[in-house]
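User: Can you recover a sequence for this backbone? Please restate the input before giving your answer.

Assistant: Of course. Working from this structure:
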């Protein structure tokens, strides 16, 4: 069956137009996200201790690839855990994005893949879709192989699989949403590097919920775009995604003293698009208390919490609206 997306419980609130109650920041900074699915014990052997992070290897495309896997505390006590895949930026690693993102604090299984060394100046890890992408590397296929392994070996819920990332890795999440339709229930790119290569195949892709977070003072991936590098203005890119998702209305609302939420509603298949603009924010992961990039890091929001609240509203369903 053709998959679609369901916004459980909050859909009626969104339709009613109560913006403040449905933004990714609505529950407030530090509020508890939704729990995992009902407690049915995980019967599969765990590859590592619950509450730990460990590096693993995976053969994909004739290469040995690596990723850091985090299992939440209490992992064995239930099955059907949500799965979040988080992609680092250029020159970084899975270990680094785990450290500054705080995603491992969420009630989810989290995988942090490592990119391969790309082209351009320096031997820096990078992802497909950028001008400096690694030659001959298919990160879309690597992601598909990674999801297959995690689905087959862990107690995760394939209908609640999500992708996030920063910069070059965030750009990859948009490519994955377009090239792997029906695999991710939602994506949340943070300060994404939206090169043309990261948008390949998006014109005909099915609707996907997107939360985009960006610093208005980002000088690495400028908020206003960079024509010399074929980078779009962020608000224009968000609108174009909302148009492709068939959204019919938009509302802007200041949710923090330095954060404005623009939400696109009435979208096809229960999807939604939201953009969080951080005044004065740099090329960073908001809310991080360690280095995550250049420029100012706001502490008025935590990107990990905003991302989780957005993800928690979306699940893949079949054409009859049932969880697959």
């Amino acid at each position: 069956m053709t998959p679609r997306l369901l916004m459980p419980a909050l859909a009626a609130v969104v339709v009613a137009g109560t913006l403040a109650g449905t933004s990714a920041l609505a529950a407030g900074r530090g509020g508890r996200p939704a729990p995992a699915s009902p407690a049915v014990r995980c019967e599969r052997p765990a590859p590592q201790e619950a509450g730990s992070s460990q590096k693993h290897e995976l053969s994909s495309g004739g290469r040995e690839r690596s990723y850091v896997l985090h299992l939440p505390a209490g992992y064995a006590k239930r099955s059907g855990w949500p799965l979040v895949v988080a992609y680092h930026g250029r020159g970084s690693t899975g270990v680094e994005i785990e450290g500054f993102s705080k995603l491992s604090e969420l009630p989810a299984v989290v995988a942090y893949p490592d990119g391969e060394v790309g082209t351009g100046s320096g031997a820096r890890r990078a992802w497909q879709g950028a001008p400096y992408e690694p030659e001959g590397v298919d990160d879309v296929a690597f992601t598909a192989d990674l999801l297959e392994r995690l689905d087959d070996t862990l107690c995760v819920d394939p209908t609640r699989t999500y992708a996030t990332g920063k910069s070059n890795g965030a750009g990859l999440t948009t490519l994955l949403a377009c090239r792997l339709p029906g695999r991710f229930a939602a994506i949340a790119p943070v300060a994404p590097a939206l090169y043309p290569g990261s948008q390949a195949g998006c014109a005909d892709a099915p609707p996907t919920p997107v939360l985009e977070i960006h610093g208005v003072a980002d000088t690495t991936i400028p908020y206003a775009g960079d024509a010399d590098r074929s980078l779009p203005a962020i608000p224009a890119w968000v609108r174009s995604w909302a148009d492709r998702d068939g959204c019919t209305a938009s509302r802007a609302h200041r949710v923090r003293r330095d954060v404005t939420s623009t939400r696109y509603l009435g979208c096809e298949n229960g999807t939604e698009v939201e953009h969080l603009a951080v005044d004065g924010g740099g090329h960073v992961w908001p809310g991080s208390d360690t280095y995550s990039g250049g420029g100012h890091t706001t502490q008025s929001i935590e990107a990990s919490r905003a991302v989780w609240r957005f993800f928690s509203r979306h699940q893949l369903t079949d054409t009859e609206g049932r969880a697959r």
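That completes the design. The helical segments are 11-16, 94-101, 139-153, 168-179, 234-244, 303-311.
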